[in-house]
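Records of this kind hold a single protein each, on a pair of labelled lines. Below, a sample record shows both lines together.
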Amino acid sequence: MLCRSIAVEGSEKILSLIEGAEMAEIRIEMSNLSSDEVRVLFAKHKSLIATCRPGDIPDKTRKALLKAAIDGGAEWVDIEIESDDGYMRELVRYAKANDCKVIISYHNYKSTPDKEYLERIIERSLSEGADLVKIATMANSDNDNSTLISLYRPGRALLSIGMGELGRVTRIEALKRGAPFTFVIAPGSQESAPGQYSEAEMKKILGI
């Protein structure tokens, strides 16, 4: 499945970009929406990922926005593995109580750690209640791509992708290796992470 990653401001613009999507990720921290607006937005599509990355927004506010998305009917909520334990566990409990699946994600925008380190990240994420573990690291070599692809195994709930131009192949391999979706650029939008394919490009590659 192809998941449009949407990082724009305003409900109207977001709704225009999710129209016709199989699924979409909404980057709430870039949406400039209130909790009430988020709740309404997430009721508009049956397959949305609620993501609110750390940065300028305090954790208390991020948590409220993600809970609002869950209340609205988000299918998935993305929680960073680096989060404070209390923050993460409260959101995991809230999601599970409201039939929302949990992605626990690890991002490294500079490099790809060794396989042993990433295996520990995966196991910890699963132990914290992840329904899917997302690994996204900067791919600086073919060996980095090999490391990311080697993390897949039958039955493992994993999305492992390399960022950057060199890592693009891993976004295709993800679907071949059993990941439930891979991220693409929505028509008329821009990439939200380095190396993403447009939806049209990915459909062409996959023969859709």
Remarks:
- The chain has eight helices and nine strands.
- The mean pLDDT is 95.
